Amino acid sequence: MTTTTKFPDLLSEVRAFRAANPDVRYVELICLDIPGHFYGKRYPMDMLEKVAAGGPLKVPQNCVLLGAQGGLHPIGDYCFNDGDPDAPRRLIPGTLKPVRWEKQPMGQMLISSDGTEAPIEFEPREVLARVLKRLEARGIRPVVAFELEFYLFDRKLENGLPQFPRDPLTGDADDQPNMHIERLTRFSEVLHETVEAAREQGVDANVITAELGPGQFEINFAHCDDGLHAADQAALFCRSTRGVAMQHGYRASFMSKPYLDAPGSGMHVHVSLYDQEGRNLLDGDQQRPLRHAVAGCLELLPHCMPIFAANHNAFRRYGAMVNSASKASWGFEDRDACIRIPESDGKNLRIEHRLAGADANPYLVLAAILSGMEYGLDQAREPIPSLNEDRRSGIDFPKDMLTAVAAMASHEVVKDKLGSEFVFVYCENKRQDHLDFMNEVSAREYRWFL
């Protein structure tokens, strides 16, 4: 299990970094927006030291609202109706790290509005921070581990389409995928450097698996007793993986469903809940709290689909191949379920939430999962039958973005748990992105209807 690194103060952290990395002249200060992209500014090292000593750090508030392609949508009183105001940010201690995938020596550090005098209600990290504070006030401490699947593609696209990655030794395309260990050997250089780069960013990456798709792999993280840090790790891992892959002649993508005839990529999240004495709350009272938490997650899941399936492509993943659910379901040691209960002893009893696409926003995914578990503990209801009891068991959830947005925007429990302003902004962002995506006449459309 990992915990966040503690520093006496930010200024000493910056000075220690400068001493250890004298060639680094600039540091990128970055934060995750609603679609899951990093935005920020590049600061000279001497200016970063001034910020760490208490100087101001501001970034336009509406950067959080950027769409999937980087543009702004008209959302309520924001964007085009508010004068594009700056908003305060803070440096996140323990996240100042060197970057190995840039041509010049570089550093990066996470920033956030959470913990400032004026946090941005719809900033993803702030949404998760509020959920965690609410649980902390109840004496509940989540322990979290992310698992992320991703694809490697050849660096060059062909007619705009991704190509299978090629074995660096033979030049053969990785077009006969399986889980054989030899695939890890063939792509070991990029995979091992991916893990090393992640660890340099403070990500406790460990187990590497060759997945079923061509060029598809999964890397796991250690369990972490700090929910914000766990989500930070997932976000930073995506960025470092893309950077390292490009250096090796590949594109790394966390796109949910890049190939229709191959498995999609998921974000699997393991969560257990502990009290202040270190007891696993899910294991008490003959595991009734576990079942209640599952019931809550299943009830809220259809109303959180824009979070779990963050774009048009992500909805293609559900029910299309093995181990990808088409209904909200649960089961013991069952990878076809949205919520899997891995075999474990009582101390490590947990849920594995398997529904989110790999390109979902990790802060929001974790916030939605924890809110579902909290709601379930409060309602104390039994879940629907598990898949172990009935293979047809499950609750329908939306399969397209516009239906999903409508289901989320109107749900009072979701608005209460995640914040009504966040739900409004997020749903409108997703609705506008989807409409922009559909606002193009494709070659197939001409072929069908011309």
UniProtKB/TrEMBL annotation:
The keyword Coiled coil does not apply. Residues 124-450 form the GS catalytic domain. SUPFAM superfamilies: Glutamine synthetase/guanido kinase. Pfam families: Gln-synt_C. Signal peptide: none annotated. GO terms for biological process: glutamine biosynthetic process; polyamine catabolic process. GO terms for molecular function: glutamine synthetase activity. Its cofactor is Mg(2+). Gene3D superfamilies: Glutamine synthetase/guanido kinase, catalytic domain. InterPro entries: Gln_synth/guanido_kin_cat_dom (IPR014746), Gln_synth_cat_dom (IPR008146), Gln_synth_gly_rich_site (IPR027303). PROSITE patterns: GLNA_ATP (PS00181), GS_CATALYTIC (PS51987). Keywords: Ligase, Magnesium. Transmembrane segments: none annotated. Belongs to the glutamine synthetase family. This is Glutamine synthetase. It comes from Aquipseudomonas guryensis. The lineage of its organism: Bacteria, Pseudomonadati, Pseudomonadota, Gammaproteobacteria, Pseudomonadales.
